[in-house]
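re the bet — no i am not wrong, look at it urself. input seq straight from the record:
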Amino acid sequence: MTAEANPVPRGAAGALWRSCHPGPTVVVSVLALLLGLSTGLDAARLALFVGAVGAGQLSVGWSNDAIDARRYTEVGRRDKPIARGEITARTVAVAAGLALLVAVGLSVLLGWGFLAAHTAALVSAWGYNAWLKRTAASVVPFAVSFGLFPSLATLAAAEPSFASPWATAAGAALGLAVHFSNVLPDLDDDAATGVRGLPHRLGARTSAITAFAALATGAGAVTAGAVVAGAASPVTLVGLLAVLAIGATGLVRALRRPDRTVFRLVMLAALALVLLLAATGVRLTT
C-alpha cells in the first residue's frame, strides 16, 4: 500500500501525542507520582493513582485541541497538529473520550471518594475547555482542579481522607499561577477569536504579576504546612527561596517577552514545591 493510499497519516501517533499538550501532561503525571509517594501509597494504589490522573490529563489536553480546532486553524497555530492537517479533530475528540473513560474506570478502583473528587476535577477542566475559558470565570476551573489535586493523593490511600487546608490552598494557588502564565503568549490570538477570559481582561502585565503572586502564595502555604507540622528546617527555607527565584525569573521574562518559557518555569516551580514536600516529610493530611 502506498503512502497516498493510507487513510491514516504516517505520523498520526506523533500528532496525537503532540495534541495532548504533552508538557503539562507529563508534569501533572510526575506531580501525581511524587504526591502519591509522599502520601505513602502502596505500589498497586500508586499505579492506579498515576494512571487515573495521567489518563484524565490526556483527556483534558485532547479535548482542548478538539474543541479549539477551528480557532487554531483561523489564527494559523502551526504548533497544533490539527491546524497543520496532521490529524483530524474527530480523531482527537475520540481519543479524549476514550481517555476519559479510562480515567473514570481506574478511579472507580480507588474508591468512591477518589472517584467523586477526580470526576469533579475533570468536569471542571472540561468545563474550561468547552466554555469557561471565554468568561471572566476562566480562573475558577484551575483553582478547583488544582485545589483538589492534593486530596486526590490522600483519597487514593487505603484509608482515604481529604488533604489539609494548607495543601488545598497551595494547590489552588498553583492553579492560578498556571492559568495566568499559560495564556500569556496567546492573548492576541485568543482575543481575535472571541476568547476573553480573566487574564485577557486584566492584560499581560497584570496577569504576569498575578501569576507570580499566586506562585508565591502557594509556596507560602507549603511553608506554613511545614511549620505547623513541625517539619520546618533549613531545607524548607532553601526550597522556598528556590521556588521564589524560579517564579521571579518567570515574572521578569513575562514582563519583557511573554512566551511558553514563562509557563514552563511555573510548572518547574510546581515540581520544586512537591519535591520540597517530599524532602521535609510533611504529610498532606496534617
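see?? The two ends are 61 Å apart (CA to CA). told u. also Residues 121 and 145 are 4 Å apart (CA to CA). so pay up
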